[in-house]
Amino acid sequence: MAGGGAPVPQSSGGKKSVDFQLNLVPFIDLLSVLISFLLMTSVWTQVARINVRQQPNLPSDDPTPPPEEEQLNLAVLIKSSGYTVTKKGAVVKEIEKKGEEYDSATLNETLKQMAAENPENKDITVTSEDKVPYKELITVMDICLEHNLAGISVAGVDA
User: Fold this and answer.
1) In angstroms, rounded to a whole number, what is the distance separating the alpha carbons of residues 99 and 118?
2) Are 147 and 115 in contact (CB under 8 A)?
3) Residue 118: inside a domain, yes or no?
4) Neighbours of 125 (CB within 10 A)
5) What integer is the mean pLDDT of 46-70?
6) Could you give the CA distance from residue 7 to residue 29 in angstroms, rounded to a whole number?
7) 23: in domain
8) How many other CB atoms are found less than 10 A from the CB of residue 38?
9) Is residue 19 one of the residues assigned to a domain?
10) Does residue 150 lie in a domain region?
11) CA-to-CA separations, 13 to 17, 22, 46, 67, 149, in angstroms, rounded
12) Which residues constitute the domain of residue 80?
């Protein structure tokens, strides 16, 4: 018999037996019902994502062949003091913070102008210093996507 019966004394010494059998079948049934209910009622969502490629850092990586046209090399550096926008290695605009907040509106206008001047360019490199909040990196990537700069590369700052 499975179960929960009282222990039967084995000797006349007045001590009761400590053997007890616990029927686990109802617990397993309950667990299987709860798991199936959880799977049927859970909400399945797809997390939005941005495709980002990392620039090769190792010399063993095969270098990409240079394109026929001149590279624009558009880049945004996120510093603790603000943004720096560069084109072909030269600084185009330094955007200082307004108080404690980054001036994303000025960055938005700058990238809009750069995208309008070079509509064939879709590539941009975003770099960030160590102490910059992750939120700012995402904000810059969103601004880049807004202006059709979908070839986003994330790179580290060379020390």
Assistant:
1) 32
2) yes
3) yes
4) 17
5) 60
6) 26
7) no
8) 9
9) no
10) yes
11) 11, 26, 67, 96, 88
12) 53-59+70-156
